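By way of example, we now present a protein record of this kind:
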Amino acid sequence: MRTTNRLPRREFLSVALGAPAVFSAAISDAQEHTRGSLRPIIFVWLDGGLTQLETFDPKPDAPVEIRGEGKAIRSKEGTLFGEQLPKLAALEKEFTILRAVQNTSGEHETGTTEFMGKTAFARYGGSGGLQYGFIHPSQGSRVYDKAHQTASADFRFQWKGGAFNCPNLETAVDARRHTERRALLKVFQRGAVDPLQHIAMDLLSGDAEKLHKAFTLNPRDVEAYAPEGANPEPGMPEAFLLAQQLAEQGLPFTTLHYGGWDYHNAMRSALAKRLPVFDHALATLIRQTRERRTVIAACSEFGRTPKINDFGGRDHWPNAGSALITVGSGVFGSTDRSGDAASGIVTPEKLRKTILAAAGHTFPLREYVWEIVKS
């Protein structure tokens, strides 16, 4: 009888081993100044825009059209959480909540690129070099919808004419020369490979025992990530366990996509089902990785509007969203009674570098939230 579940390796490589391009760029800039041994990072990407008012920044004293129908609970330290997050509230001393994470865009595509993509890799080449500089518009994140429909001026394009049919072209070079050219290209590109990719490749091709431990999922361990009586999305408990085990086996950066938080309508009923699962899974991940001192960060591309709309949901709100990072404790930043960012505003770039600084990378103090990392 089989006692373990095994996930298709390729399916998880794109999810669990990929660091967003902007994180990789920051790591490359900082690696010469890294201090000591690095702590592994698990970046939980809450795609869609998790509501802050029902989770990490409730407003119990605001009018009902802002506070909503849900209640707030208070942790032992006095911090307010949404009523569906009691397990995270009990672990409050193990993380910091950032309540004024501010993005420049309220659109999913462009809001996501602020955290996950669109980075020009000038350091890999450029004018006068053998390698061309290049841009990854969405490395480390999913491709959003149809490229021609994006509202971002950076990516918008048009075309004219009918369908494109490639003609049969004569081969410019024979197969042998083509193979030689590809080999030469690999030599040129070797220095441009993401340093995190190198480590991931070493993990996958080196120690077979580590590889086995990372990708072998014991059913009992999977069950630990699914709260009793709940019905988590298929594969969600396995994804959290895999992220834990990859960090345990030495992977420096694991990206865990946990999306679907874009509730423009019927938000209350949807959150009543999903938030208890999220609360349990994230709290379990924090407990299970505490011994290895793993840095866990969770955030979305933006927050949700303070005022509930006519359909019982909240719309996009880049002015202020919340994030969580397992370093320090308490709350950093604030929003006012109406939900606008009031103090301690943190940009996506500053949040990224704060996460990396917590793991051991060194940056100038002005580039990250030192008040959190100093602990």
